[in-house]
């Protein structure tokens, strides 16, 4: 039969190192919370980004709700300068793969094609007007010279 | 007790004056514009950007807006 003191010894000794482990994990949690970055700040409208106070030497990024717009506001360390505001428009890339989706690039190209056609039509009209003018009044500069001689 | 009452009366009569004196806000800052006051406090390192973010997040919270009576 082993003595009762020998059996109780490890039971009293072992809990000591394990007792501190949960305390350490509880202390580490608030430190992780303070290290969280702000990321994008959601704002209801663009005007809110322009009004948003930013500390000197800081840069804040804003995402406008329900609109594909990102605004970056940065303040330099010198407080005399006005804040720099950059506005970006986001373009969805996954929308190209969808069969019935509207492709933004195709729209831009079609706008360019439409503008080219309109310009060509205007050029044609101008040429037609020029032709009509010269056919009705041929050589207007020569007429002036003849008028001067007659005078 | 009298001092507390006087402070309360001053706060009721001229709230922005009392707050400007408390946080050393100069007269050049537009006291009617909360964002201008916050910007001044940021510039003078009286508050941090994190505190501003938290405050703005609370202000944009619909539940808090309801408590404030729909004021923004």
Number of strands of chain A: 4
Summing up helix and strand content along with how strands pair, one would put the structural category of chain A as alpha+beta
Number of domains of chain B: 1
Overall shape of chain B: it is globular
Strand order of the largest sheet of chain A: 1-2-3-4
Total number of helices of chain A: 6
Distance between the termini of chain B: 35 Å
Radius of gyration of chain B: 15 Å
Largest interface: A-B, 14 and 13 residues
As a percent range, the share of helical residues of chain B equals 55-70%
| Approximate strand percentage of chain A | 5-15%
Oligomer: heterodimer
Order of helices and strands of chain A: HHHEHEEEHH
The pLDDT mean of chain A sits at 73
Q: Counting H and I runs of at least 4 residues, what is the number of helices of chain B?
A: 5
Strand content of chain B: under 5%
Largest sheet of chain B: none
Largest sheet of chain A: 4 strands, mixed
Q: In one word, what is the shape of chain A?
A: elongated
Which terms summarize this structure?
heterodimer; A: 151 residues; alpha+beta; 4-stranded mixed β-sheet; 6 helices; 4 strands; B: 72 residues; mainly alpha
Structure description:
The complex is a heterodimer of chains A (about 150) and B (about 70). Chain A is α+β, with helices and mostly antiparallel strands and about 150 residues long. Chain A is built from 6 helices and 4 strands. Chain B has about 70 residues and is mainly α. Chain B has one domain (about 1-65). The mean pLDDT of chain B is about 85. The chains are: A alpha+beta (about 150), B mainly alpha (about 70). The interface of A and B includes residues 43, 51, 52 and 54 of A.
């Amino acid at each position: 039969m082993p003595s009762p003191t020998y059996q109780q010894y490890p039971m009293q000794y072992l809990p000591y190192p394990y007792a501190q482990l949960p305390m350490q994990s509880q202390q580490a949690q608030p430190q992780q919370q303070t290290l969280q970055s702000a990321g994008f700040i959601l704002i209801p409208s663009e005007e809110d980004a322009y009004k948003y106070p930013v500390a000197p030497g800081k840069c804040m990024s804003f995402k406008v709700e329900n609109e594909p717009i990102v605004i970056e506001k940065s303040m330099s360390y010198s407080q005399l300068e006005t804040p720099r505001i950059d506005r970006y428009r986001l373009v969805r890339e996954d929308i190209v793969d969808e069969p019935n989706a509207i492709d933004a690039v195709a729209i831009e190209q079609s706008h360019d094609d439409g503008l080219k056609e309109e310009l060509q039509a205007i050029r044609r009209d101008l040429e037609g007007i020029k032709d009509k003018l010269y056919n009705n009044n041929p050589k207007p500069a020569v007429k002036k010279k003849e008028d001067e001689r007659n005078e | 007790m009298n001092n507390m009452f006087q402070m309360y009366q001053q706060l009721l009569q001229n709230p922005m004056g009392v707050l400007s004196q408390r946080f050393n806000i100069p007269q050049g800052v537009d006291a009617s514009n909360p964002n201008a006051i916050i910007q001044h406090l940021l510039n003078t390192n009286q508050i941090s950007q994190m505190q501003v973010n938290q405050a703005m997040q609370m202000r944009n919270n619909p539940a808090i807006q309801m408590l404030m009576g729909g004021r923004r």
